[in-house]
């Protein structure tokens, strides 16, 4: 959706995920996908309820694919538009989710023993019509700030 809005001129810039071998946009950070759940979530359920981000998210397809390959029964309970909505549903115990490690926050925890998830790059994309404030200097400052934050994780 963000890429569409950039193309349509509705956004000047967006921070998105991309495949590690892509050169789309300005690279900011590489992030590892992790499984998340509420502290007391029972993983022994027969059908694992999933709370995932939008279908175009790299982790969405990877989660479903890895569970299918394992033969683990699952059901997509919710497909969220925001990370905060996803974390909220996961925190409430509605299901398990997947997201980048940098995004999990303190209100949910990372699950051990789940199928591996890919790494993705986080990139800054700019629209076709450049905003006057989106200068090379600003992009450099954003990249430097994210680099400092990621080194603290």
TrEMBL record:
Record keywords, A-Z: DNA-binding, Transcription, Transcription regulation
Pfam families, A to Z: LysR_substrate
Transmembrane parts of this sequence: none
InterPro entries referenced in this protein's UniProt entry, alphabetically: LTTR (IPR050176), LysR_subst-bd (IPR005119)
Annotated LysR substrate-binding domain residues: 2-110
Protein name as it appears in the record: Transcriptional regulator
Organism: Vibrio variabilis
Lineage: Bacteria, Pseudomonadati, Pseudomonadota, Gammaproteobacteria, Vibrionales
